[in-house]
Design brief:
Number of helices: 11
Number of strands: 8
CATH superfamily: Aldolase class I
Number of domains: 1
Shape: globular
Largest sheet: 8 strands, parallel, barrel
Distance between the termini: 15 Å
CATH class: Alpha Beta
Helix content: 40-55%
Strand order of the largest sheet: 1-2-3-4-5-6-7-8
Radius of gyration: 17 Å
Bound molecules: phosphoenolpyruvate
CATH architecture: Alpha-Beta Barrel
Length: about 250
């Protein structure tokens, strides 16, 4: 039986103007306040424009706030980017790094992701480091190799269970409605944990949370969250409705 406390994390992506985003945050915070006993940590990652307002709404509740990305550098001439310390200053406790959409849209390599995770750590944020294979890679039998390689290349020195969360997100399951089966998810999560053990030692690997992400919904969450090496979810589409997001959190109970 694992002692890892699940993390239910909502990735709002590039969705939400003020009215909708703040109402969503209020909906999540109200549910958390009403049901504090649900045994999981709860995190929302709004778009940058809403972070400070969402952090104000979440203040004093058990809902944490995170950024969806951060820059690897501390400050400087990087137009349009956001430093990890700026996220921290705006009220974040977490930063997602290496999401497959950023790897694809912005050409982020493992080395870039590693530098971003290190920057998040330096700013006092927990880095959520995302890995995952494409459908072509899965069909070619490369799933385990791809995830091991991404993990090795993306995890910075100094990563530990307190400052790092891993998110396994098969690219073919993100936003597609096609979810990994419990067997597929557990198989990869176990490989990731073994890789973490080789790198960080058994105790740290045992304590580190590994989230599943990819079309997690209220109706499939329970089976995924019950798996021995699945320690929560990184949730995109279903995090945009407080009711659905909360139904997933309740599946931890
Ligand atoms: C994600 O973007 O991290 C994600 C898992 O999206 P979805 O839940 O919509 O598949």
């Amino acid at each position: 039986m694992s002692t890892r406390r699940p993390l239910i994390a909502g990735n709002w992506k590039m969705n939400g103007l003020r009215a909708d985003g703040l109402a969503l945050a209020e909906g999540v915070v109200a549910r958390r306040k009403a049901e504090r006993g649900i045994p999981c940590d709860v995190l929302v990652c709004p778009p940058f424009t809403l972070i400070a307002d969402v952090a104000r709404i979440a203040a004093g509740s058990d809902v944490a706030v995170g950024g969806q990305d951060c820059h690897a550098k501390v400050s400087g001439a990087h137009t349009g980017d956001t430093a990890a310390a700026m996220l921290k200053d705006a009220g974040c406790g977490y930063a997602i790094v290496g999401h497959s959409e950023r790897r694809a849209d912005h050409g982020e390599t493992d080395a870039v992701v590693k530098a971003k995770a290190a920057a998040a750590h330096q700013a006092g944020l927990v880095a959520i480091v995302c890995v995952g294979e494409t459908l072509a890679q899965r069909d070619a039998g490369q799933t385990m190799d791809v995830n091991r390689t991404q993990l090795r290349g993306s995890l910075p020195d100094g990563a530990n269970a307190a400052n790092t969360v891993i998110a396994y997100e098969p690219v073919w399951a993100i936003g597609t409605g096609r979810v990994a089966t419990p067997e597929q998810a557990q198989e990869v999560h176990a490989v990731i944990r073994a890789e973490l053990a080789a790198r960080l030692g058994a105790a740290e690997a045992d304590a580190m949370r590994i989230l599943y992400g990819g079309s997690m919904k209220p109706d499939n969450a329970k089976a995924l969250l019950a798996l021995p090496d699945v320690d929560g979810g990184l949730i995109g589409g279903a995090s945009l409705k407080a009711e659905d997001f909360w139904a997933i959190a309740k599946a931890c109970g």
